[in-house]
Amino acid sequence: MSFNTRAFRDALGCFPTGVTLVTAHTAESHPMGITANSFTSVSLDPPLILWCAYRRSHRFDTFVNADAFTVSVLDATHQEVSARLAKPGEHRLDDIPLVPTESGAPALADALAVFACRREAVYDGGDHAIIVGHVVQFAFRYAGSPLVFFRGRYHPFSPTYPTFDFM
User: Fold this and answer.
1) pTM of the model
2) What is the pLDDT of residues 92-119, one digit of tens each?
3) Is residue 10 in a domain?
4) Are 53 and 34 contacting, i.e. CB atoms less than 8 angstroms apart?
5) Residue 118, domain extent
6) Separation of alpha carbons 88 and 153, rounded Å
7) CA distance 139 to 118
8) Which of 24, 29, 31, 38 has its CA nearest to residue 118?
9) Is residue 164 in some structural domain?
10) CA-CA distance, 7 to 166, in Å (whole number)?
């Protein structure tokens, strides 16, 4: 029996994920971005996160060789940014509002959360590389809804917040 890669990908798509923008500087010091939904926490002490980069991406070398990178958690208003940076092609961030971070890599100015990292390690992960970052700075905001990816498409997600019960 042969392994059905397309069906495997469809099965993996049943797990809804948040969407992030990972940024780093190219060798020429230009900020570059890539959309990633393979982001997760690894450790609280020390503070470590990881994300995975596709080996066939034209941006692969930039990200696995970057000493610093930033992961910005996208909100529902960032679908266009995510879609643009998920496609092959130019991934400079000239028209996207960025803010500086302690790591040196810029972050999306209006992200739900930001994790500025120094590269801790890079591991083989088949057709991807697993990039572990040591978080040197982070920030987050309470308002906003996350951008969610499920079964190959973006989906709305509206968290409910508790209302006040005055007594």
Assistant:
1) 0.90
2) 788 899 999 999 999 999 999 999 999 9
3) no
4) yes
5) 16-155
6) 17
7) 16
8) 24
9) no
10) 51
